[in-house]
Amino acid sequence: MDSPWIFTAFRAPADPDAAPEALQEIRRLRARVLFDQGRRPAFASRGGDHPGARPDAQPDSQPDAQPQDHGAWHFAARRGRDGLHGPPLGYVRLLTPATASRYQSREFLGATRYDEVLHTEGLTPGSVFEHSRLVVEHRARKLGLGLHLNALAVAAAHELGAAAMIGTSGTADGQDRFHGRFGFHPVAGTRRYVEKYTEDVVILLHRCAEGAGEHTALVDDYRLLFRYDLMEQGCPAGAVGTAGAAAAVEAAGPGRGRSFTVPHRGPVWRDAPPRRLTAIGPADPHRWKPVLFEPARHDDRVAMGSLLDTGAVREVADTIEAQLEELIRARDPGRVLDADELDAARRDQLDGARPWDYGAWAWYPWSGRLVHVLPREEFRLVRTDRNRGKIDRPEQRRLLDKRIGVIGLSVGNSAALTLAQEGVAGAFKLADFDTLSVSNLNRLRAGLHQIGVNKAVIAARQMFEIDPYLDIEIFPAGLTEDTVKEFFLGGHGPIDLLVEECDTPWVKLAAREAARDLGVPVVMDANDRGLLDIERFDREPHRPLLHGLLGTLTPDDCLDLTFDQRVDLILAMVDADRISPALAASIPKIGRTLSSWPQLASGVALGGALVTEAARRILLGGPCASGRFYVDLEELIADGRNQAAVSLPSAP
After folding, report:
1. Largest Cα–Cα distance of the chain, in whole Å?
2. Which of 2, 108, 213, 226 has the most Cβ atoms closer than 10 angstroms to its Cβ?
3. Confidence check: pLDDT of 509 > 70
4. pLDDT by residue (tens digit) across 409-438?
5. Which of 187-196, 297-306, 389-398 has the lowest mean pLDDT?
6. Alpha carbon distance 520, 517 (integer Å)
7. Overall average pLDDT of the 108-118 stretch
């Protein structure tokens, strides 16, 4: 994994007398951060201040020397540019059920109350791990180190087979809310003031089967790091920084900012893929991002070999020879090659590399497939080759630099997939709080095995299966007041265009307000009579929302609506006087004899095409004005509209 941090790990011996030097270094860091320039006097050194405990102090006489340290996993982070021997800037601890009697949460609650909490939650002591002592130096907090360390601890617990994680959390600086973003929730009745920490402390609980909240994808990435690097590093009883690890860091070179790989035991690579890989790994409804391995990189070779050894890969798809042939013909379509010339051209393209090593391998954990693919630029050249003549190479490159946001991945699924297929943007942000249900299958391209999966996750998976090199971020809680700014501006970058396909009035107006403020054009398909709605806020910063159909209505006016009020408001948005007769007849039946709005797959597919056409024109600067446009299939395919100039013979 590319990262500005070097992570190291060790599991301390259970015997306090065998505590390694690395543990003493960690305790000094923890005490210094927790002392917080005097805010927590309990962590002061004997002199009353805290420049750090004396290096020669006995292990269990140092500030913050806790019995929980013995037998626990310890994770530390250093800046990549400082190398393995730089000072640790952050730390987190993970305790396993082997030392459950020492858990800090058990100490905080008392043994009886702790057992009651586990019983109420339906958990057994042997399945619960404890997360504790997350500390980060002030200079590293702004760089987001706490987020990565927390993800690493959660990932390690998931990888080690935890059913749940428990831990104590302070509340003064929002630590509990920070953990909430990883799926931790407070246990009722456990919050109380603790003098040592000078703040209220609460017990938090995390269920591993439910993923890791908004950071599930990050945790998934760190599961690979823990499995392939840190677990093997930490299992021996020795300290952090073995000679092999140090050599690996030095080999990475200064400033690379990559976590090192401890040399792997046994063979880790094959000259050819296994003929049959049929083991199916456990399904995970939260995974949506492929892992890319580039065999030319040593770390990736090791990681991919380890993946093949796990048995999780059920299918290997290697069509690189055919892809190379397509690449050669796409670059020179007028050249006719015989079999020998084609082989020579392939060898020239490989430039000495083995076909198995060339390009990248995409691991799709939700399907168990490992797929061989050309390098990014070559893959995209071939994949969009037949766009040429309608979208030429310079335009294709311009589009791939764009980022599109899509809100609502039911109807929006068709738009998102068509945009990805056509290469109209290389980056996407997808937002939807809802999960797939059986009734969605009449219009959303998905399978029965995906029932209950978040719709943004489904769309991201489908798009990555088209192009594993896409840049996709998802918002599985949908667009909320807390995530509007992040959706439009944060993450990997601001969006250039918004596709809005949500049926929540507050979201429709709040998204448009933000788009207008930021000069982002908005495109919407209303899925009735082929209605395409375009608002060019990039050209018209004072344009009224939804063409002024709602007057001065604000997002706050759309809160706490009754079902009938919501229906009336959506009808006003789409202009009730212009809806189709079929939809007009259905409105009074919604909530009575009809469960919801009638929609058809044909209309949704048409909407995906219309949105993609408009988005491409807007992003390339083509003709595309604000307004409403109808592509009504009933009118287009009607008597009197036939354009075929065919005369039938008269009847005798």
Report:
1. 116
2. 226
3. yes
4. 999 999 999 999 999 999 999 999 999 999
5. 297-306
6. 8
7. 95
Residue 553's CB is within 10 A of a number of other CB atoms, namely 16
Give the strands of the sheet with 403-407, arranged side by side: 471-475, 427-431, 403-407, 497-500, 522-525, 531-535, 627-630
**Buried b or exposed e, range 231-263, using 16+ CB within 10 angstroms:** bbbbeeeeebbbeebeebbeebeeebebbbbbe
State the number of CA atoms in the 13 A half-sphere of 38 facing the CB.
Answer: 3
Specify the pLDDT at position 81. 64
pLDDT above 70 covers what percent of the chain?
Answer: 85
Residue indicated by tokens 């943007």: 425
| CA dihedral sign of residues 204, 210, 214, 220 | positive
Angle at the Cα of 607 from the Cα atoms of 603 and 611, rounded to 5 degrees: 175
Question: And the tokens for 211?
Answer: 């993923």
> What distance in Å separates the CA atoms of residue 1 and residue 258, rounded to the nearest whole number?
7
Structure-block tokens of residue 314: 């059920």
Q: Identify the H or E element spanning 104.
A: helix 104-109
3-state helix, strand, coil in the chain (%, to 5): 45, 15, 40
In the predicted model, what is the mean pLDDT of residues 442-453? 92
Q: Which of 63-72, 312-321, 398-407, 447-456 has the lowest mean pLDDT?
A: 63-72
Q: Which residues on adjacent β-strands are paired with residue 531?
A: 630
Q: Is 202 helix (H, G, I), strand (E, B) or coil?
A: strand
Residue 244 to residues 4, 13, 250: CA-CA distances in angstroms? 21, 21, 10
DSSP 291-324: EEE-TTSHHHHHHHHHHHHHT---EEE--HHHHH
Dihedrals phi, psi of 82, to nearest 5 degrees: -85, -15
Helix (H, G, I), strand (E, B) or coil at 135: strand
Cα-based distances in Å from 643 to 86, 631, 647, 649: 75, 17, 12, 18
Q: Are 532 and 611 in contact (CB under 8 A)?
A: yes
Work out whether strand 497-500 and strand 403-407 pair parallel, antiparallel, or are unpaired: parallel
Answer with the residue of higher pLDDT: 595 or 522: 522
Cβ count within 10 A of residue 287 = 20
pLDDT of residue 80: 67
